[in-house]
Design brief:
Layout lengths: L1 E5 L3 H5 L5 E6 L4 H8 L6 E5 L9 H10 L5 E4 L4 H4 L1 H9 L5 E2 L2 H9 L4 H4 L5 H11 L15 E7 L6 H12 L5 E6 L12 E4 L4 H7 L5 E5 L12 E6 L3 H10 L11 E4 L6 H11 L3 E4 L11 H9 L10 H8 L5
Parallel strand pairs: 1-2, 1-3, 3-4, 4-5, 6-9, 6-10, 7-8, 7-9, 10-11, 11-12
Length: 337
């Protein structure tokens, strides 16, 4: 269920030992690639960058990132100075294109271990981007959030019944507070008391605004939303938890047949999930949802949980990176520049 778009590196890509459903060779306008694959279901696309006409113009890659799911695309770079430059790579990252490499080993690695932002963050020239953005902004224009240090309010909400939102909020807090100032709050329940942890409170939904206001000195506020719809509006970001067991999903669909439809475009987490990467792709195809993260069952007694750090880094908490970036970059062979 994979596709290959090849040109200069066709012979290299022909040696890939993966299942191919469609393969095209040649040099194409970016609009031709988009038109061919925008409604075509695939697990991974291996895209030879030289197959894109005028690929050195970063705007063509931007078109691609807008129209295709770049989480499923592995971009094979060439050795040209333009496409290998730190500035070009940084712009790819800004567009959400994280899976790029220069060799066959890198393709195979990314095929099974797709990058998140955490994996490429050290090559993202944020300072340059921020300065350029501020300089280009007209007088009185708002500066993007990443230039301003402000409190992030992250909501967590169960979609299937008892999907683990309360425990996940607790574990997110425990992990984040090693690098950030953080508090957690639950809405209209009193289950935080069982964790016996500091900086965890319970409030009614009508008092959440006051809680956020008096905790603006914190870098992160985590909110266990429970059933509150109004509280979602006070969050900068909300993640929605689905426990993908057959019984939980069937109960959800019997209770509300459009429950999954309302999640389109939102950050959906498969929580307490034992699904493989292929299972997740099948779930996406059947549900017509884009899954933000596949979270396995976690041990709350562990002090350092790598997969939880990966999730938090993907949410934008860059200080959670835990030291595997250098090892991976050597494997992918993309930063010898």
């Amino acid at each position: 269920m994979n596709v290959i778009v090849a040109n200069k590196y066709q012979s290299m890509l022909e040696s890939l030992d993966i299942e191919i459903i469609k393969s095209i060779q040649g040099e194409y306008e970016v609009d031709e690639i988009i038109e061919t694959f925008k409604n075509f279901f695939f697990q991974r696309m291996i895209l030879d960058i030289t197959a894109i006409k005028n690929y050195k113009d970063i705007k063509n890659l931007q078109k691609l990132s807008i129209s295709l799911d770049m989480d499923k695309v592995i971009l094979l770079l060439d050795d040209s100075p333009e496409s290998s430059s730190p500035d070009y790579l940084s712009k790819l990252i800004s567009m959400g294109i994280y899976n790029f490499t220069k060799n066959l080993d890198g393709i195979l690695y990314l095929y099974n271990n797709p990058n998140s932002y955490r994996d490429v963050a050290q090559y993202h020239q944020l300072e340059t981007v921020s300065q350029q953005t501020v300089a280009a902004a007209p007088t009185g224009a708002a500066v993007p959030n990443y230039v301003i240090n402000e409190t992030r309010v992250i909501g967590v909400k169960n979609v299937t019944h008892d999907s683990g939102a309360t425990t996940l909020v607790y574990m997110m807090k425990q992990q984040l507070e090693k690098n950030y100032s953080v508090v957690a709050v639950e809405i209209d329940k009193h289950e935080f008391a069982y964790f016996k942890s500091k900086n965890m409170e319970s409030v009614s939904s009508v008092n959440l605004g006051n809680f956020i206001t008096r905790n603006r000195n914190q870098e992160v506020i985590l909110v266990d939303l429970n059933h509150s719809i109004e509280a979602e509006k006070l969050c900068n970001d909300v993640v929605y938890l689905i426990e993908p067991s057959v019984i939980k999903l069937n109960k959800l669909m019997i209770a509300d047949r459009n429950a999954l439809g309302r999640l389109k475009g939102k950050k959906v987490i498969l929580n307490q999930s034992l699904l493989t990467a292929k299972d997740v792709l099948d779930f996406e195809y059947e549900s017509r949802l884009k899954i933000f993260f596949n979270m396995p069952p976690l041990d709350e007694r562990e002090k350092q949980i790598h997969i939880l750090n990966v999730f938090l880094a993907k949410l934008g908490f860059d200080r959670q990176a835990d030291g595997e970036i250098e090892k991976k970059s050597k494997l992918l062979g993309i930063f010898n520049i």
